[in-house]
């Protein structure tokens, strides 16, 4: 059974930790800039180790824990930034940079959730020869066998870049665009992601433009 590589979501987690480290201290609970990096890095190492040992249950569980930690950190930072905007205590330059960092983190966080939850996660998706069932209806899933073969997608399965593209569209167009959402849990997650993106773009960035 061919396993999906774990390095793309691992890099996404490290990127989120890096974006968090770039935020000003008042948006990170006053914690040191390196704290999330210090949490994310060893957890990624453990996830990869257990994956190599074929202990996918532990690897998957640690992935849930890691996703939950970075999600909580991002949402709390967004709330603190909104509070600063309402109190008029943040400069336009810092608001713009912090909003951009949190907007990117929002995309990476939810791409990781979609990748980890869809159709039971990457390990369960690897058990099937062709991806035909899940929370999202990708265009390849509607193609006939002959069409997939002609397009060079005979054994197509979604990987992290597919979920990253989905999360990017949700944060920019506030909709899944070419990928219909089938599952209720996925709809809830996409609504949460769109709300966070809307707050960051429409309220925070808009406020920064007014200040300028």
Average per-residue pLDDT, rounded, comes to 86
Helix segment count? 8
Number of strands: 0
Q: Helix content range of the residues, please?
A: 55-70%
Shape: globular
Report what the structure shows.
The chain has 212 residues and is an all-alpha fold. It has one domain. Helices cover 67% and strands 0% of the residues. It is built from eight helices and no strands. Helix 3 packs antiparallel against helix 4 and helix 7 packs across helix 8. The chain starts with 6 loop residues before the first helix and ends with a helix. The relative contact order is 0.13.
Entry summary:
With 212 residues, this protein is mainly alpha-helical.
Q: What structural keywords apply?
A:
single chain, 212 residues, mainly alpha
Task: Produce the secondary structure layout.
Blueprint lengths: L6 H16 L12 H18 L3 H31 L5 H26 L4 H5 L18 H6 L9 H13 L11 H28 L1
Helix pairs in contact: 1-2, 1-3, 1-4, 2-3, 3-4, 3-8, 4-7, 4-8, 7-8
């Amino acid at each position: 059974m061919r396993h999906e590589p774990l390095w793309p979501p691992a890099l996404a987690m490290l990127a989120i930790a890096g974006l968090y480290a770039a935020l000003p201290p008042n948006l990170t609970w006053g914690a040191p800039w390196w704290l999330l990096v210090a949490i994310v890095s060893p957890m990624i190492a453990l996830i990869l180790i257990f994956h190599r040992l074929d202990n996918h249950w532990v690897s998957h569980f640690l992935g849930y824990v890691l996703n939950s930690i970075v999600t909580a950190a991002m949402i709390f930072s967004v709330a603190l930034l909104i509070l600063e905007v309402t109190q008029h205590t943040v400069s336009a330059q810092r608001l713009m940079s912090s909003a951009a960092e949190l907007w990117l983190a929002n995309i990476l966080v939810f791409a990781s959730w979609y990748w980890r939850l869809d159709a039971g996660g990457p390990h369960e998706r690897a058990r099937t020869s062709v991806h035909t069932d899940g929370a999202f209806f990708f265009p390849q899933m509607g193609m006939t066998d002959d069409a997939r073969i002609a397009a060079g997608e005979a054994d197509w399965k979604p990987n992290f870049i597919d979920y990253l593209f989905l999360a990017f569209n949700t944060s920019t167009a506030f909709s899944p665009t070419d990928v219909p959402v089938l599952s209720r849990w996925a709809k809830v997650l996409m609504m949460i992601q769109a709300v966070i993106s809307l707050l960051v773009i429409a309220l925070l960035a808009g406020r920064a433009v007014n200040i300028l």
